[in-house]
């Protein structure tokens, strides 16, 4: 069986739009649909269409913005729109947006008429370095993150940092969390480089984005179906996703951005790594200090911690009833499938609150 990671090549800047034009000319899709949310419809769509030679016949489908709309109900609306607009198996879906649009759009394309081609145009930093690469598609089930989906690579991914001009600072910080994660699982030198990007000068970001995409692509190519090494990309996500899910559906809490929750998850996972894998204590202090400087702290009480721990049982990395963590023996030395006792998780939250 061919390695599916060979599909989904990533292209940058001017070359990227030439590749889309070449794809349209050589494959001649029966119809082209562009999926946007209400924000990217307003801020990004015209930028994208203006870069293509032939975009006059595209059909635009809009979904509501926000993680709370990344669900099967929204998928159903897009499937119905595709059907009513005459999409067939030779149609193409182009997803222009952040992680919600690329995740959901990829899933919609992968399942409509048993699969149509799709292209991802990520417009947020988070989706550029994470959601658009690796072929993971899917939606949430209630407040449970990414429970429904398939691995199916796009025809290509187009990365153009000019879209980042449309993002508020907190969205840029959210994307930076995934870049910081790449640093922690990759190498000390890359961590040092990216942990000094808190001010996020867009001029510096192009190289960092490409480097982070290359790190993720290398891992995905080795393990497209997440049997082993690809699990390392989930560092900080076991508790991060549970925190995000808890805040998503708790009316007394504001919804967290994905990167904000993952940042907290990385501090917690690094503390657990120090307890169980002898991760150097001075590096724990340095990492947590850097993350707190960028993201601040999320206040949670004991009752909420119990609810968050309970949500971890739905994590997609779990096997045979065990909650599997990714931990670090050192920066750049991740270890997968680690079991963590609940008392250590409570200690991690205590450290997080007091650090």
Automatic annotation (TrEMBL):
GO MF annotations, alphabetized: 3-dehydroquinate synthase activity
Cofactor or coenzyme needed: NAD(+); Co(2+)
Domain of life: Bacteria
Keywords per UniProt: Cobalt, Lyase, Metal-binding, NAD, Nucleotide-binding, Zinc
Residue intervals of the 3-dehydroquinate synthase N-terminal domain: 61-173
Ranges where the 3-dehydroquinate synthase C-terminal domain occurs: 175-318
InterPro entries, per database record: Dehydroquinate_synthase, DHQ_synth_AroB, DHQ_synth_fam, DHQS/DOIS_N, DHQS_C
Assigned EC number: 4.2.3.4
A Pfam family hit: DHQ_synthase
Function statement: Catalyzes the conversion of 3-deoxy-D-arabino-heptulosonate 7-phosphate (DAHP) to dehydroquinate (DHQ).
Family annotation (NCBIfam families): aroB (TIGR01357)
Name of the featured protein: 3-dehydroquinate synthase
Species this chain originates from: Autumnicola edwardsiae
């Amino acid at each position: 069986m061919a390695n599916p990671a060979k599909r989904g090549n990533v292209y940058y800047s001017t070359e990227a739009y030439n590749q889309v034009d070449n794809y349209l000319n050589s494959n001649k899709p029966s119809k082209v649909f562009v999926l946007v949310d209400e924000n990217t419809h307003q801020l990004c769509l015209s930028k994208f269409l203006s870069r293509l030679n032939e975009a006059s016949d595209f059909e635009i489908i809009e979904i509501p913005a926000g993680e709370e709309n990344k669900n099967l109900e929204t998928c159903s609306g897009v499937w119905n729109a595709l059907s009513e607009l005459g999409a067939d198996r030779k149609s193409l879906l182009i997803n222009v947006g952040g992680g919600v649009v690329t995740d959901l759009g990829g899933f919609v394309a992968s399942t409509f008429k048993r699969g149509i081609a799709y292209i991802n145009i990520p417009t947020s930093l988070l989706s550029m370095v994470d959601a658009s690469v690796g072929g993971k598609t899917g939606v949430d089930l209630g407040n449970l993150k990414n429970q429904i989906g398939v691995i199916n690579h796009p025809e290509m991914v187009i990365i153009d940092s000019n879209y980042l001009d449309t993002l508020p600072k907190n969205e840029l910080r959210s994307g930076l969390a995934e870049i910081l994660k790449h640093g922690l699982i990759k190498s000390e030198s890359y961590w040092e480089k990216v942990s000094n990007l808190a001010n996020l000068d867009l001029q510096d970001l192009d190289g960092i984005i490409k480097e982070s995409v290359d790190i993720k692509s290398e891992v995905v190519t080795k393990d497209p179906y997440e049997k082993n090494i690809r699990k390392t990309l989930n560092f900080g996500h076991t508790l991060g996703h549970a925190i995000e899910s808890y805040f998503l559906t708790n009316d007394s809490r504001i919804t967290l951005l994905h990167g904000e929750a993952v940042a907290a998850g990385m501090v917690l996972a690094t503390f657990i790594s120090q307890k169980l894998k002898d991760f150097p204590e001075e590096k724990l202090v340095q990492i947590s200090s850097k993350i707190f400087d960028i993201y601040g702290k999320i206040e949670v009480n004991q009752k909420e911690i119990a609810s968050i721990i309970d949500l971890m049982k739905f994590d997609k990395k779990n096997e045979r009833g065990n909650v599997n963590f990714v931990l670090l023996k050192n920066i750049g030395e991740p270890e997968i499938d680690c079991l963590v006792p609940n008392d250590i998780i409570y200690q991690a939250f205590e450290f997080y609150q007091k650090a």
